[in-house]
Amino acid sequence: MPRQLQVYQSPDIVVTFDPNICMHFGECLRGAPEVFDVSRPDWIRPGAAPAETVAEVVARCPSGALHAVLPGHSPARPLPSVGVTIQVTRNGPVVVKGSVQLELPTGISEKRNSSFSLCRCGQTRSTPFCDGSHVRVGFKSPA
Predict the structure, then answer these.
(1) What pLDDT score does 75 carry?
(2) Would you state the CATH architecture of domain 6-69?
(3) What share of the chain is helix, strand, coil (3-state, %, to 5)?
């Protein structure tokens, strides 16, 4: 069963988190530990740092699970200047950054304008997106 989108806001920024596609890479935790702390029930506190800092850390989320909206700004994340970038991570997912048309196994096609991660281990519960299952199952990339 899909988990609900989480919304956290301060007067200066709104941050959303989609737990269904988070791959638990931890970029947010390392980038702004005062904002992102999984030991708290309200694990995202967007007012704990300047909104621009929060937005910059959110934009580095490799799975696309985090998004930030600043008042008066477009909610779209910046796209790589080279078009589409595809990175195969060691012992992890394929990270796609850029504007792409994604065709799902269900026959549904959707436009993606930010980064997202695709599963390589075959154990995700959010096909085709990585949910961090590669860590649980000990997936290792071929040499």
Answers:
(1) 55
(2) 2-Layer Sandwich (3.30)
(3) 15, 25, 60
SS3 assignment, position 110:
strand
- Compute the distance between CA of residue 106 and CA of residue 121 in angstroms, rounded to an integer: 20
CATH number for the domain formed by residue range(s) 85-137: 3.40.5
**In terms of DSSP H, where are the helices of the chain?**
27-31, 51-59, 133-137
pLDDT tens-digit readout, 69-78: 988 776 555 5
First vs last C-alpha separation in the chain:
35
Please give the Cα distance from 89 to 26 (Å, whole number): 14
Write out pLDDT tens, residues 80-123. 455 788 889 899 889 888 888 888 888 888 888 777 889 999 99
By C-alpha distance, which of 55, 32, 57 is closest to 43?
32
* Cα 141 to Cα 90: distance, rounded to the nearest angstrom: 6
- pLDDT, tens digit, for every residue of 17-33? 988 888 788 999 999 99
